[in-house]
Predict the structure.
Amino acid sequence: MLTVEPSGGVLGATVPGLDLAEPFSERLLAEVLLALGKHGVLRFPDQHLDLLAQKRFSEQFGEIQGPSNHKIDPNNPYPEIDILSNLKENGRYIGAPDAGQDWHTDMTYREVPGFVNVLYGLRIPHRDGKPLGGTEFANMRLAYEGLPAELRSRLDGMTATHNIEKFWEHMRRVHNSPRPPMTDEQRSRRPPVVHPLFLTHPITGEKILYCNPGFVVRINELPERESDEMLDYLFAHQLQPQFRWTNVWAENDVLIWDHLGTLHRAIADYAPDEIRLIRRCQVRATKVFDPEYLRPVRELTAAAT
Ligand code: SIN
């Protein structure tokens, strides 16, 4: 039986006592998926994963997005594993120094969006004994439930357009990101995509607000001006303090989160000489909508009721 210690906040739980380098049994994976659906963010402390172990652990949730632009080194045999870090070697960042520093949900700009992120904390900055560089989350089930009933029924069945270029330009403009403007080639590889505005979560069956300020540019069924106003409202609504919770990192934590039911951002509250080093796998929703993948989860749920 999995030990799950809820954070006490609106998201998050710690799962002690597992070695993620060992493959999960079908039952253990089902228990972890259920806990993920319920708590949105799971922290596995005291992990020791090499690249292959992180990749294998991540692939239990779906296909890893790759190859990444941020390779650990040119000889890395697993280019789908990202490095998020402000660490420099020979004057150059070894990974992405600014990834995710504003509210978004990963890969909603893709036809098959993100399901899970798997982050492994190798170096966590500290100041005066306190850890810095937390990851903050917002709960989109609560955000959906917190919408006025009339708005929930008006927007039901509507769809939103997600475009990666919105976040890309925002990072350049607002956060002075060193990334160059997107090229036509990048644009043609990542054209805008459409997803439902409200999604039924495949694990919990609960409705969620599937909208994020990082990538959503339009509610397709509304006239442009009304769509802009509604998006401003939804973005402000979904980030209210009562829906938010921050994970405080410890070295050797593995943190996984459910993208479908959450928004997140990386908190850049550390200085250039306070080093943060995280290894990341971004896992796409290639499995979680498959009923056969979720069969053990359904069986567990049925056995518990
Ligand atoms: C991300 O957006 O995946 C990065 C989150 C973090 O670095 O805390």
Observations:
- The helical segments are 26-39, 51-59, 140-145, 149-155, 164-175, 184-189, 224-238, 291-304.
- Residues 5-304 form a domain with the Double-stranded beta-helix fold (CATH 3.60.130.10).
- The pocket of succinic acid is lined by residues 84, 99-100, 106, 117, 135, 264, 266, 278, 280 (CB under 6 Å).
